[in-house]
What we know:
The protein has 108 residues and is α+β, with helices and mostly antiparallel strands. The chain has helices at residues 2-27, 66-96, and strands at 31-36, 41-46, 51-56. Helix content is 53%, strand content 17%.
Amino acid sequence: MLEGQLGKLLQQAQKLQEDMMRVRDQLKNMRVEADVDAGSVKVIANGRQEIIDIILDPGIIHPANSRVIQELLVSAVNKAIEKSKKLATQEMNKVTGGLNIPNIPGLF
């Protein structure tokens, strides 16, 4: 009886691992957007915290604005990464049922 329970537990763990890897692959194709300064700077990231695109409103591109643009870019990138982390957590919680599984290196 113990062997049967252990076998079932191992099967469940394997399925959970497969589901988590599937979600990891899906997150690469999911997108989040973050914008700052009323949309003058927009950053698009995927669910794996990779920056996909940075879009600047041409109206803010002027040499005198370079320092402001740098600050806006940093702000928008950080905002996009935070949204991406939330997306990844939400998607992984769908698989784990909300279990607090430690951050596994290479998973995100």
